[in-house]
Design a protein that fits this description.
Keywords: Flavoprotein, FMN. Helix 1 (about 15-30) runs parallel beside helix 4. The mean pLDDT is about 95. The radius of gyration is 14 Å and the shape is globular. The chain is built from 5 helices and 6 strands, in the order E-H-E-E-H-E-H-E-E-H-H. It has helices spanning about 15-30, 65-75, 100-110, 130-140, 145, and strands at about 5-10, 30-35, 50-55, 85-90, 115, 120-125. Helix content is about 35%, strand content about 20%. Helix 3 links the parallel strand 4 (about 85-90) and strand 5 (about 115). By secondary structure, the protein is α/β, with parallel strands linked by helices. The protein binds flavin mononucleotide. Flavin mononucleotide binds next to helix 1 and strand 4. Flavin mononucleotide binds near residues 15, 56, 57, 58 and 64.
Length: about 150
């Protein structure tokens, strides 16, 4: 059983639904999960934890408002994430040149702080007719051996 911190960046709710679907899947796999809808770095355990980041991209490649503060904290603080594992799920739209920049950039930021990426980010293109909740839940289920 792993302890998993789910960190959400969402403006319109889509990434939040994806995060909640992943949380349900992870709970069913008997992991211990906590959802952070207004993430604050000092409130989120990191030692020997898994961080799952679900974020959309807004503006022109920008972070959703609710996760910007967390990203600023992470950027500014010296934090050693070498015992933390991470996985990132992005929601975006491929009609933007800045497709899924927030997910790509936070993933790079986490790695720059020493975080151990479990798998390359899953990037959903919302231009396509997809069900990101279902796809993300299946993707998370497939990672079960790497989560424990
Ligand atoms: C004003 C606006 C700007 C957007 N900018 C981008 C962008 O730069 N890159 C991208 O990949 N998607 C962009 N999108 C698409 C959103 O990321 C996508 O609709 C996503 O599903 C929204 O998720 P959310 O409901 O969690 O905020 C933008 C959407 C809106 C409405």
């Amino acid at each position: 059983m792993a302890s998993i911190q789910i960190i959400v960046g969402s403006m319109l709710g889509g990434s939040e639904y994806v995060a909640e679907a992943c949380q349900q899947t992870l709970d069913e796999l008997n992991h211990q999960t906590t959802l952070h809808l207004s993430p604050e770095l000092s409130d989120i355990p990191y030692k020997d934890q898994i961080w799952l980041v679900c974020t959309s991209t807004h503006g022109a490649g920008e972070y959703p408002d609710n996760i910007q503060h967390f990203v600023d904290q992470l950027t500014d603080q010296e934090i050693d994430l070498s015992t933390t594992k991470c996985i990132t799920i992005g929601l975006g739209d491929s009609s933007y040149d800045t497709f899924c920049y927030a997910a790509k950039n936070i993933n790079k930021l986490l790695i720059s702080k020493g975080c151990n990426q479990i798998k390359e980010p899953l990037l959903h293109d919302m231009q396509q007719d997809i069900d990101p909740e279902e796809l993300s839940s299946l993707w998370i289920s497939d990672l079960k051996d790497q989560l424990s």
